[in-house]
Amino acid sequence: MIYLILISALSGAVVTVLLQFLLLYRRNTEPISRTVQYVKIAPSSSLRDYLNNQQAEAGPQEAGPAAHGAGSSPKQSPAPHEPETCNFLNAIFLFLFRELRDTPMVRHWITKKIKVEFEELLQTKTAGRLLEGLSLRDISLGNSLPVFKTARLMEPTPRNEDGMPEELNFEVDLEYNGGFHLAIDVELVFGKSAYLFVKMRRVVGRLRLQFTRVPFSHWSFTFLEDPLVDFEVRSQFEGRPLPQLTSIIVNQLKRVIKKKHTLPNYKIRYKPFFPVQVQTQLETACTLDLLFIFGSYDKEMHVHCTVELSSQQWKEKTRSSIKQ
């Protein structure tokens, strides 16, 4: 009798488990709902109003004083193009400058940029008659960064059908009194050496800060007009000052600012906001390599590529600045 009860209980348990498995596997599984991964970016209502202030400004100005009659609302909207303070940016940059100023990464990057300017200086005709080589002895980044006094959104701001800007241009009032300076050893053409000290006392000017997607995503900054730049340059040759060397260095520094960083000239920049669009040239022989890059933009324009073949070696000169 006991065996019969145990067999019945065991059989019931097995049958119950089998029925549960059958019910689970015979039921159609519901597919997992997939979320939308790619959506169009849309500005918030406040940001859209900020960008629309440019287009709304032209109408009231042309209408004249008659447009401000009895029908005008007592609530006044913010004046378009009103300069904005940048104190929060200055505070953030100052904090980062304090933490990163003396790090090897920053000093290596600054030193590399300065050596590029040295090479260009030695290639000029005036400097080539007197200078044979330049070597950096010491560098100091000063005690502060440039200060952004005010910023203003410049017009026009091209936008697509979704209201997103294709290009942003800001006019920024900049002032610098940080005391950035260099100590340089100069090799002269007649086999002698000299010492050169260059300090940037003050820089004041109006800067254009641009972010654009045309023809590809990049950013740039350049002065709208010649800035006010005050350099302190001291030279020493065998215990005596060398005025010729001082004059060459001051003129070259001002020429670099005008030719590279003053409109209509500016330098296209990618880092740290965008990936580098210009690919490094690959050394190949008897082969043809095609690299086609297509971004995630909407099809707002026709994208095409051209291929040219030649029996001669292709040479391309890199361009560091462009003109509008």
Automatic annotation (TrEMBL):
Recorded GO MF terms: lipid binding
GO cellular component, one term: mitochondrion
Membrane keyword on record: yes
UniProtKB keywords: Lipid transport, Lipid-binding, Membrane, Transmembrane, Transmembrane helix, Transport
InterPro entries referenced in this protein's UniProt entry, alphabetically: PDZD8, PDZD8_N, SMP_LBD
Biased composition annotated in UniProt, kind: Low complexity: 55-74
Subcellular location(s) per record: Membrane
Residue ranges occupied by any SMP-LTD domain in the UniProt entry: 82-272
GO biological process: lipid transport; mitochondrial calcium ion homeostasis; mitochondrion-endoplasmic reticulum membrane tethering
Sequence intervals crossing the membrane: 6-25
Protein name according to UniProt: SMP-LTD domain-containing protein
Species of origin: Takifugu bimaculatus
